[in-house]
Amino acid sequence: MKGALTPQAAAELIPDGASLMVGGFMAVGTPARLIEAIVARRPRNLTLICNDAATPGKGVGKLISAGLISRLIASHIGLNPEMQAKMISGEVECELVPQGTLVERIRAGGMGLGGVLTPTGLGTEVEEGKQIVEVQGRRFLVETPLKADFALLGAWQADYVGNLRYLLTAHNFNPVMALAGATVIAEADSIVPVGVIPPDAVKTPGVLVDHLLIRPGL
Amino acid sequence: MDAKEIIARRVAREIHPGMLVNLGIGLPSMVANYVPASLGVFFQAENGVIGLGARPPEGMENLSLTDAGGGFVTAAPGAASIDSAMSFGLIRGGHLDMTVLGGLQVDEAGRLANWKVPGKMVPGMGGAMDLVTGAARVVVAMQHAARGESKIVRSCSLPLTSLRRVDLVVTELAVIAPTEAGLVLRERAPGVSLEEIRAATEAALILDGDVPEMILA
Question: Which residues span the domain enclosing B113?
């Protein structure tokens, strides 16, 4: 862990054309202050990898509303009519991926695997253009790994070495994305001294985290 | 009793003590209202909780505790919070006893379409493809028709969610069991005749013995 950055300084690390994995499910567990700072800096042509498109003006919905995203990889955009319109008009290229496949593709990317074999999507539109293999008599789709330039995480607590702990349904994609971003930036609701998060409660070890955001309110 | 309540009350009777059940957003989530806490059922929400509880008291919501539709919930005794890899491991890995999903179409092969209306509505499949592929039992809870058109069709015209044959379809008119031979009509809603069900259904229905009235929870 390299230290704590202001949201503005963190946003400045993100150039035009970068790919971002952003934690969260319907904006729960999404790093809100970091998203605000990125919207203010306005990098363009970003690729966003996220479970869903949230709603307009919430979570990653802010990045979409601001026109910063040119490509989206997600499982669900149904609660963001703005994103649906941008997909239909062609303004944002959108790849829809089954949710369980999306998280496993990210896990494969972060854990050094060459992909995932899954039965999900066989015989549907999801199968199109993909390799099918048979293992022990069962058919599987070959799904490729996903990585990104940045993983932006939302956590409940962080300690001084970057260990992270999550609350309730705010885990979602965060612990998995922590391995799949070349640069990992985490925003926590509070930063606590080392030892407050017991080793057994650490879900993302600090060795994976490059930068923390400074505490809220500064 | 309106159509949705009939469906939710009938589906509730499919849920047995000790099951792990995933309820989709919308109509399927109403099923929980008719499952007594004494059954010891765990509801999973795929965003990351096993042991979903009722709505919290007004003003006491936790911003980090929601269901898959983003609504505020509580956690039942014995609940566990999990990440998305674990959540879908439970689903895809066959650890989920039952899923209840909404539908746009079910066809004579028992195949479900519920994630896309090309050119009109493309919400994305979310967790639906994994749920239909991996759950031990798949129950579709949907209204029998939409804008006058039967949703139980000969062959799905909308993109499929999975090739897997679903286990049961519950509508406000009927309970239908997809089988290898086709769609078997199992039950009719209170006061609804076989002729009314046939007239409202595009697909062929197989009669296999009595078709009693539904018993509702």
Answer: 3-207
